[in-house]
TrEMBL record:
Location, primary (coarse class): membrane
Biased composition, class Basic and acidic residues, residue ranges: 16-36
Lineage: Bacteria, Bacillati, Actinomycetota, Actinomycetes, Streptosporangiales
PROSITE patterns per the UniProt record, alphabetical: ABC_TM1F (PS50929), ABC_TRANSPORTER_1 (PS00211), ABC_TRANSPORTER_2 (PS50893)
Keyword set, alphabetical order: ATP-binding, Membrane, Nucleotide-binding, Transmembrane, Transmembrane helix
Gene Ontology molecular function, alphabetical: ABC-type oligopeptide transporter activity; ATP binding; ATP hydrolysis activity
Top-rank taxon: Bacteria
Protein name: ATP-binding cassette, subfamily C
Any GO CC annotation of this UniProt entry: plasma membrane
The ABC transmembrane type-1 domain, residue ranges: 82-370
Subcellular location: Cell membrane
Leader sequence segment: none
Mode of membrane association: Multi-pass membrane protein
Length: 662
């Protein structure tokens, strides 16, 4: 359920104001807030149902979280996990022994007879007490050292697993807001808190052992003292859990706002948008937008701080009262002669130790609970991302699914594919059918937004159709492992902040002859010749000695990247949009030659360049409305003929303007 005006009234409260289902939407336009009537921004909304369900589920999932954390720790470092756990537990055993020995010492000291004799009698117990304390100290040191070693190992494993998933999920996941929020939470807090969960799980076990030792010691002294000690833990425990929950709720509610804040801060601090920020004088606008999100974040955080302080104060007050009760009970037992003075003395020690351990336990449980909420996000993202990986992409990491190795491409077919982007209300492609055979060049043409890039991404297996299929020699590509067999030169190709060579190789092994061939085919060799360090030039101005290229130069590098891969299917999505006329002409020639032994899909608005394609498919509002050779389509007199005529006319007009008498 999306919320309406989530923080509209948050000057005093973070309680969400929910829009009743029957309330007309126009209330949005009349709401009196500091954004003067703007409707609630997307970054202010969140899924309240999910939040509450998540919290309840997480509270129940604490044992599961602990088990997951310990499993992760075990996988990250077996020896360190074992030493940390065993060291803490054994140290606890020595604590109990210490109490028993203390009681013996006190009993000897409080016994009748001359003092030197009493001290002599107490000596063996004192020696044992000292030995127990030394051993306990040694064990704790070993455990602490192991824990410290474990932390970076766990962090590394958690982050590696996260990045393994973010690079493996379906491309469509990146169009999904919920996925982004889940990923942001997992990256921001999930990963760092994974180590905290492991650390606090061990600390909680240690504190539990400490409390159990003190409780056991008290139980040995007198059974009544045991429940009294536990009573003092309740208020602090309640306060800790409540405070943790408040903090997490705020974090959850702010996850979309934080993403917007990071995005705005990048726009103001990164190099790429810096020119437009200045050219369009965007400074005030961006700062104002940033201020809105930052104000919301601050408001929510201050509110949480206030509520957490109140909860903690209440918890402290109740703990004080409970402690008073415990000492009163102890005094009553002593006065009634139920317990002797020596036992009462040890009991005071055990109560104090028990309380310290209890306070530690409550504190660690609180941290565990709180970190567990964020770690829960990490696990949730893990589960979510795993469901969003394609069968092909999942295969390498032990899912048991082994995709078939495909035969050499004879024919690639889009078999009546329909595709709707996540969250979109209408399909970007409807029943689209195209075919490209080895040795052929096909062209996809059509107006802006007609679905050409979407179809290309489906052909490359980057998106999967909701109906229909992409077939490689007749087999559905979702069952094939096509890695390395398809090359895509994307319209919005990435300007990788790497060297020229790395930009072209893209992780492939170096083959000098092929590199030179690919660079020449794309015209990138001319770009390299202008750079001082040639192929070793770093294409990132943010680092010393880094270069930047012009749009057309970048495009040549991107095209060379496509040529370098020995792919069977090559998709060029507007490869010449930034090229000058000479480079464009040369590139189309090379693309035609490159089709030898390969299948080529070419998307372009330069219709003069697709005249020689083996087949041209015309897309219109997601449908393939025309197909055929240039001559056939011109004869058809449809959309293609119209668009071609318009472009040709534009050139003729220019011709006339330039040469009125020519
Ligand atoms: N990631 C996305 N999420 C939602 N809708 C999208 C996404 N990408 C594209 N669209 C929509 O899908 C439709 C087809 O877009 P597509 O990029 O395939 O068009 P195109 O023919 O390549 O256009 P152009 O000639 O401008 O490059 C458009 O309506 C576009 O707005």
């Amino acid at each position: 359920m999306k919320l309406w005006g989530t923080w509209r009234h948050t000057a005093t409260s973070t309680e969400p104001h929910q829009k009743p289902d029957d309330e007309p939407d126009d209330r949005r336009d009349t709401a009196p807030d500091d954004r003067s009537g703007l409707e609630t921004a997307y970054w202010e909304t969140h899924d309240e149902e999910l939040l509450n369900a998540g919290l309840a589920a997480i509270a129940r999932r604490l044992p599961f979280l602990v088990a997951s954390a310990l499993r992760l720790a075990w996988q990250a470092g077996r020896r360190d996990t074992a030493v940390a756990l065993a060291g803490n537990v054994l140290a606890g055993a020595f604590t109990v022994y210490g109490f028993v020995a203390t009681s013996d010492v006190l009993t000897s000291l409080f016994a009748g007879g001359p003092t030197p004799g009493r001290v002599r009698d107490a000596l063996p117990s004192l020696a044992l007490l000292a030995a127990a304390a030394t051993l306990r100290g040694a064990l704790l040191t070993a455990a602490t050292w192991a824990q410290a070693r474990l932390k970076p190992q766990v962090e590394r494993l958690a982050e590696t697993r996260l990045l393994d998933l973010t690079t493996r999920v379906d491309l469509a996941a990146f169009d999904d807001d919920d996925f982004h929020n889940a990923m942001r939470r997992a990256r921001d807090s999930g990963v760092p808190d994974t180590a905290t969960v492991v650390e606090t799980t061990i600390a909680a076990l240690t504190a539990t052992v400490g409390v159990a030792s003190a409780t056991a010691a008290l139980g040995l002294l007198h059974p009544l003292l045991m429940p009294l000690l536990l009573l003092t833990a309740l208020p602090a425990g309640w306060a800790a859990v409540r405070a943790g929950k408040l903090g997490y709720q705020a974090f959850y509610r702010l996850s979309a706002a934080r993403r917007r804040k990071f995005m705005l801060s990048d726009l103001m601090a990164e190099r790429q948008p810096a020119a437009e920020v200045r050219a369009f004088d965007l400074r005030d606008f961006l700062l104002a937008e940033y201020a809105k999100v930052a104000a919301l974040e601050q408001r929510v955080q201050l509110d949480v701080a206030r509520r957490r302080t109140a909860v903690k104060a209440g918890g402290d007050l109740l703990t004080g009262a409970a402690t008073l009760g415990v000492y009163a009970a102890l005094a009553a037992l002593l006065a009634a002669g139920v317990i002797p003075l020596a036992v009462a003395g040890t009991a005071v020690l055990a109560i104090r130790t028990g309380q310290t351990s209890l306070a530690g336990l409550v504190q660690t449980l609180n941290r565990l609970y709180e970190a567990g909420l964020y770690f829960g996000d990490y696990l949730t993202f893990h589960a979510l991302a795993t469901t969003r990986t394609t069968p092909t992409a999942q295969a390498p990491t032990g899912t048991g699914v082994t995709p078939a190795a495909p035969a050499r491409l004879a024919r690639l077919t889009a078999d009546h594919v329909t595709f709707t982007y996540p969250g979109a209300d209408r399909p970007a492609l409807r029943e689209a059918a195209v075919t490209v055979a080895r040795g052929e060049v096909i062209a996809l043409v059509g107006e802006n937004g007609s679905g050409k890039t979407t179809l290309a991404k489906l052909l490359a297996g980057l998106y999967h159709p909701q109906s229909g299929a992409i077939r490689w020699n007749g087999a559905d590509i979702t069952r094939l492992d096509l890695r390395g067999l398809i090359s895509v030169i994307a319209q919005d190709h990435t300007r990788w902040p790497l060297t020229v060579r790395e930009n072209i190789l893209m992780g492939r092994p170096l083959d000098q002859a092929r590199l030179a061939e690919a660079a020449t085919a794309a015209g990138a060799d001319e770009v390299v010749a202008t750079l001082t360090h040639g192929y070793d030039s770093l294409l990132d101005r943010r680092f010393r000695g880094g270069h930047d290229l012009s749009g057309g130069q970048w495009q040549r590098i991107a095209v060379a990247r496509g040529f370098y891969r020995d792919a069977e299917l090559v998709i060029f999505d507007e490869p010449t949009s930034a090229l000058d006329a000479r480079a464009e002409h040369a590139l189309f020639e090379r693309i035609r030659k490159h089709a030898d032994g390969r299948a080529i899909v070419l998307i372009t608005h330069r219709l003069a360049s697709v005249r020689y394609a083996d087949r041209i498919y015309v897309l219109d509002h997601g449908r393939v409305t025309e197909q055929g050779t240039h001559t056939e389509l011109m004869a058809l007199g449809g959309l293609y003929a119209e668009l071609y005529g318009l472009q040709a006319a534009a050139y003729r007009l220019d011709d006339h303007a330039d040469h009125p008498h020519g």
